[in-house]
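SEQUENCE-TO-STRUCTURE ENTRY
===========================
What this section holds: a protein sequence and its matching fold, both as plain text.
Tokens: labelled as protein backbone structure tokens, with as many entries as the chain has residues.
Question of interest: how does this chain fold, as expressed in backbone structure tokens?
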Amino acid sequence: MSKIAIVVLTDTEGGEALGRIVNALTAAKEFKDGGDRVTVIFTGTGTKWIGELTKADHLMHSVYSGLKDQIAGACGFCAGAFGVADEVKAEGVYLLSDYGQNMSYRKLVQDGFQIITF
């Protein structure tokens, strides 16, 4: 069984944004379906995705909803910096502050996760 951390860094805007979130969530679903341990973290401008993915009409809403138990959280500093901290908390997503106010890549590595970024 693999331990995989999917880290979403991509913004919600731009030509590649939708492709990146589709690939991130599809990869997370594939690992979950395969019985692997997978965790999803939103950081940087990626924290803005939580508000988008909770919309019922979003292309990836059902995949996101199916991964709710795999979502470790969103970087607390980044969610605040990009003005989405209240929105993230309202969706029940935990604000990570493992390294100061930020999420910790080192903790993921120490816990044995392979990190894939999108």
